[in-house]
Amino acid sequence: MPEFAVPPIDPMSITFQPPTGGMTPSGPVLSRRMSDLEGLFADTAAWRAARDEADPVVYEVASSPVPEAPGELPQSITTIHPGAVGGEFHMTKGHQHPNPQGEIYLGLSGTGGLLLFDGTTPKWIPMAPGVIGYIPPGWAHRSVNTGDEPYRFLAVYPGDAGHDYGWVLEHGMGWRVLRGAGEPRFAPFQAEPVAG
Amino acid sequence: MPEFAVPPIDPMSITFQPPTGGMTPSGPVLSRRMSDLEGLFADTAAWRAARDEADPVVYEVASSPVPEAPGELPQSITTIHPGAVGGEFHMTKGHQHPNPQGEIYLGLSGTGGLLLFDGTTPKWIPMAPGVIGYIPPGWAHRSVNTGDEPYRFLAVYPGDAGHDYGWVLEHGMGWRVLRGAGEPRFAPFQAEPVAG
Question: N or C: more exposed end of chain B, with fewer CB within 10 A?
Answer without folding.
Answer: N
